[in-house]
Specification:
By secondary structure, this protein is α/β, with parallel strands linked by helices. It is built from twelve helices and 15 strands. 36% of the residues lie in helices and 21% in strands. An eight-stranded mixed beta sheet has the order 3-5-2-1-8-10-11-9, sandwiched between helices. A four-stranded antiparallel beta sheet has the order 12-13-15-14, sandwiched between helices. Strands 4-6-7 form a three-stranded mixed beta sheet. α2 packs antiparallel against α3, α4 runs antiparallel to α5 and α11 (295-310) crosses α12 (346-354). 45% of the residues are buried. Bound molecules: aspartic acid.
Length: 357
């Protein structure tokens, strides 16, 4: 039995049909995000909902409604989307910001359930938070186990659940990954598939660096560290629920379901230099390299790159400033090197480090 989670880019008018190639009779439960970006400068539904809560204008609601109307129309889904939208709008500003932000996932789940003629599972009723804001794991697992029984497929909205003190609570952004992991663990799935728009965990951020390779396997611990370091491919809190049950996570690209993917399990990565995760801020990239070299060796690899590129380098301290090289800062901690560089040098730096084994 497989649990699959689909990110927001998969839940768009142009991409939803691809799910039919992925979801098999082995899938018992799928967890979906709110409709995501349909083009680079587009705004995610969740961000539109957050704006709507602060400024409930017709204009913003039309943008949200338009995404869901097209999702339904393009994919010929038999659902009364106008009624669903009207109902969601009537609740959007009644409770809290988190409630409003959860509506995208609820709408997605209702629409995707109709698309697959599957059973909609209301996350508010099964995923339960305590009054202290923490997930009530026992109650949540038992609710999910009891709910996921007879139907051929269940569809649940990710990112939110019901709260003991209020109506709904959300996880932090990207939290549908966590919901998917919880469902996989609660149902003792054999596999947790996390379908996104990149080919698994890449050695560098594919948005910032071209031709990046996929890390084919890594351990739960490595995945957790990379997520914490900023690899946006998986929410860090999605690791523990499946790790505790030994359920592997497959991180794949829904656009290339048979293409490269990453398998996260108890088996560690085969590479000594695991990965680079980046956050681009104002032309500078903060790059985190997870490695299993001794720090002196990692320092030597980076030094060699700098020498080849400038002719001189001196590394002895914990960090240094070499702004003429567009390498602004290096910090060494155990098995983690964090570099702040200009986006233009990242490709060659990465290659230079990787070529040394
Ligand atoms: N839709 C939410 C977000 O944009 C949650 C998720 O997609 O996982 O953060």
């Amino acid at each position: 039995m497989i649990t699959a989670k689909f990110g927001g880019t998969a839940i768009t008018a142009g991409n939803l049909m691809r799910l039919k190639e992925i979801v098999t009779p082995f899938h018992k439960c799928i967890v979906v995000s709110a409709v995501g970006k349909e083009y680079q400068t587009d705004t995610k539904t969740t961000d539109l909902l957050i704006s709507y809560y602060h400024n409930p204008s017709k204009d913003i609601w039309c943008k949200i409604a338009d995404k869901y109307r097209r999702l339904v129309k393009v994919n010929a889904i038999d659902v009364d989307i106008d009624a669903l939208l009207a109902d969601a709008r009537s609740r959007a500003t009644l409770y809290s910001l988190q409630y409003c932000a959860s509506l995208g996932e609820e709408l997605s789940a209702r629409v995707v359930a109709a698309f697959f003629q599957a059973q909609f599972l209301e996350a508010e009723q099964v995923v339960r938070f305590n009054s202290d804001g923490n997930l009530n794991v026992e109650e949540t697992y038992s609710n999910i186990r009891q709910s996921v029984q007879g139907a051929h497929l269940y569809v649940m909205g990710g990112f939110y659940g019901g709260c003991a003190t209020g109506v709904r609570q959300t996880f932090s952004r990207g939290g549908s990954d966590v919901s998917g992991a919880i469902v996989a663990a609660a149902t003792d799935s054999t596999l947790y598939e996390n379908w996104t728009d990149v080919c698994g965990v890449c050695v560098a951020n594919p948005v910032a660096v071209s031709d990046v390779a996929t890390v084919l396997q890594m351990s739960y611990g490595e995945m957790y560290l990379l997520s914490l370091a900023g690899a946006e491919v998986l929410h860090p809190d999605a690791v523990a629920p499946v790790e505790s049950k030994g359920i592997p996570i497959k991180i794949g690209n829904f656009m290339q379901p048979h293409g490269k993917s990453t398998l996260v399990s108890h088996c560690p990565s085969r590479s000594k230099l695991l990965s680079i995760a980046e956050t681009v801020t104002g032309g500078r990239v903060v790059t985190t390299v997870l490695h299993s070299y001794p720090n002196w060796k990692m320092a030597r690899l980076i030094s060699r790159f700098l020498r080849q590129n400038t002719g001189k380098i001196d590394y002895f301290g914990k960090s240094m400033e070499v702004s003429s090289l567009k390498l602004y800062n290096i910090e060494f901690n155990d098995n983690v090197v964090r570099l702040t560089t200009d986006v233009s040098i990242i490709n060659s730096l990465y290659k230079s480090i990787c070529e040394t084994r």
